[in-house]
Structures are given as structure tokens and as C-alpha cells.
Fold this protein.
Amino acid sequence: MYFLSAILDLPNVRSACIAVTLLACSWSPAAFSATPEELFKPIAGVVTHPRCLNCHASGDFPTQGDKQVRHTQMVMRGDGHGLPTLRCVSCHQTSNSADGRIPGAREGWQMPPKSMAWAGLSAAQICAVMTNPAKNGNRKTSQDLIDHMLKDDLVHWAWAPGLDRTSPSLPFDQFIDALKTWSKAGAPCPK
Ligand code: HEC
Ligand code: HEC
């Protein structure tokens, strides 16, 4: 392009070419140069956060708090919604309780199936199960994952968890941006 504008030697052509070059460069340069580790790092910080892992737990019960201790009151996973006699939604309503103590969400508070358990896994392992349609609820593309995170109220809850609970340090919008950059690069998982 510089070659072309040099031949023509028209300032307006040259600036148009520079504009085109800049545009091309601003289109997600990170997706081309970054390693899978670098691309997944900001995502890893979110998916390994206790707000996610307390539901994406691996045992027969959810966990609670930043230390991910066993849920009190003998709450069990059951069919994901708790035991028939002690359902999650008996306590967890469609929004956080007024005092913030009991978490809640429109989506219906429940545990994901065990195939989506992430607690105890490394970031690379979470990436592998998260992108595996046999384990992730048959989500075939990284765009399907992004759509889930954009829509799902249980995901959003992690950034407004009530009381003095911590949230992932990456703001939600930047989490989505990081997912899009990772997705454009082919959603590679770290080794
Ligand atoms: C209240 C419990 C709860 C919390 C908190 C929660 N999830 Fe989930 N998550 C679920 C349930 C239930 C499903 C299964 C729903 C489905 O497949 O549509 C799920 C499924 C998913 C899936 C799709 C399946 C997969 O394994 O790829 C992703 C991605 C996900 N959650 C991300 C997150 C992230 C990121 C956070 C934290 C920011 C989070 N979730 C917090 C309950 C929770
Ligand atoms: C008897 C009432 C009750 C039932 C039933 C119940 N919970 Fe809870 N849950 C609570 C209370 C209260 C808290 C807040 C604990 C605290 O932080 O002090 C809580 C906290 C949690 C948290 C922790 C949030 C965090 O990140 O610290 C998760 C996850 C959770 N519940 C999941 C579930 C799931 C899944 C079910 C059903 C299988 C369920 N709960 C059933 C009362 C209940």
C-alpha cells in the first residue's frame, strides 16, 4: 500500500492507505500474536474464582465462601436442584435476599451437572472440559459458550453476589472481551 501511494504520490491516497492499514491492525491484533496461555489467562482468573466454583463443585454438595467449604445445612446436590426434601430454591430466591445474605438469581438456583465440575481442576483442564461438547451441555462452538455467559443470570450473579462476597477481579465486560479475543484465535486451551 505504501508502494502504491508512493507511485501515485497523492497525499489523500496516502492517508487513506494509512487509515486502512490502521484499521486492519486494530482488528484484534492480540488474537494473532498471543499464546494460548496468554489468551486464556484473563478467562482463567474468572473460571477459577470461588463464586463460580462453589456451584461448579465436584462433590455431591455445593460449597460456599472464598474457602469453598461444604455448604451448611446438609444441603446436597441431588438432581442438581437439591434433595426432594431440601430444594435449592426453598432458600435461594430469584434475587439476593434483601440483606444480601442468601444469594439468588432469576435463572433458578441450582448446581450444574457433574460433567461441568471445575473445582480442583487447573485452568487448562477447565478450558478442556468447558470446550468439550460431551461435557459442556453440547455447546459446539466457543460462541455458544460466550452466549451462555452473556445471558446466564447465574454467571452475572458472580459480579453482584451480595453481602461482602468477593467478585472476579476482571469486570464482566472485559471478561466478555477476553472471551471474544480467545474465540477469534480459535479458542485454544493452554497445555
Ligand atoms: C448458582 C450456581 C452457578 C454459579 C454461581 C455459576 N454457574 Fe455456571 N452453570 C450453572 C448451571 C446450573 C449450569 C448448567 C446450565 C446449562 O447447561 O445451561 C452452568 C453452566 C455453565 C457453563 C456452560 C457449561 C460449560 O461447562 O461450559 C459455563 C461456561 C458456565 N456455567 C460458566 C460460569 C462462570 C464463568 C461462572 C462464574 C462467573 C458460573 N458459571 C457460575 C450454575 C452456576
Ligand atoms: C436451607 C437453606 C438453603 C438451601 C436449601 C440451599 N442453600 Fe445455598 N446458601 C444458603 C445460605 C444462607 C447461603 C449463604 C451462606 C453464607 O454465605 O453465609 C448459601 C450459600 C450458597 C452458595 C455460596 C455462594 C458463595 O459463593 O459463597 C452456593 C454456591 C449455594 N448456596 C448453592 C446452593 C445450591 C446449589 C443448593 C441446592 C443444591 C443450595 N445452595 C441450597 C442457604 C441454602
